[in-house]
Specification:
Layout: H1 7-13, H2 27-37, E1 50-54, H3 56-72, H4 92-106, H5 114-122, E2 132-139, H6 144-163, E3 167-171, H7 178-185, E4 191-200, H8 218-221
Antiparallel strand pairs: 1-2, 2-4, 3-4
Helix pairs in contact: 1-6, 2-6, 3-7
The structure holds flavin mononucleotide.
Flavin mononucleotide is lined by residues 15-16, 18, 99, 124, 169-173, 195, 213.
Amino acid sequence: MARAGSVSDALKSRISTRAFLDTPVSEAEVRALLETARWSASGGNLQPWKVHVVAGETRQSVIDAVKASLDKDPFANESEFSVYPEKLWEPYRSRRHRLGEDMYELLGIPRDDKMARLGQLMKNYEFFGAPVGIFFSIDERMGPGQWAHLGMFMMSLALAAEEAGLATCFQEAWSPRARTVAEVLGIEAPYIVYCGMALGHGDPDAPVNQLRSKRAEVDEFAAFSGF
Ligand SMILES: Cc1cc2nc3c(=O)[nH]c(=O)nc-3n(C[C@H](O)[C@H](O)[C@H](O)COP(=O)(O)O)c2cc1C
């Protein structure tokens, strides 16, 4: 993949990659990304992020443990927070719906093929084939402000990866298995797992990686005054 030349390039070229090559990524490469991302801003400079990077056997242990937990109880929810409000409203509902429809259309999976759609969802739990997985956790005593700052750190990391020619996908899908992940990785209270990230080399030939999600126009979310 091409290296992004500027922050704007990286912002526009980064996408959620949902199919990866098995080309390995070294610890040194991931460390370099974290070296960059750690310069993210955070309120009061709290830097309220904790990161667990997994590859090789550890990555496999996470995948195996989560698979076992899904086999045991597919509906269990170990999430430490609500990923979405219970019933989304407009315009958010339509945006989410559109993303799903666009993705499944690219994959040629019709709406009524629930098993195929579930199969695609389950790929989350293998990091979409990425050789590296990253888990972000936060002290549960932190509030919405610090969660936002953790999100900023995560985006910085994704952009640093993009600049380095690596692909990513954020993965809240791990959240319903947060305690299983925490157990495998030895993440203990007060830390809770928020989100995962798949990191690696994207498969340029995978149809799912052709997805370019839509965005609202600036005037839909920004108000200007006093100019
Ligand atoms: C915090 C966060 C969690 C996400 N979790 C998932 C996930 O579990 N699985 C997935 O396929 N995509 C996930 N996404 C990707 C979003 O669907 C994606 O960012 C959005 O549709 C915009 O598309 P883009 O990233 O390709 O620009 C997540 C994104 C964010 C920011």
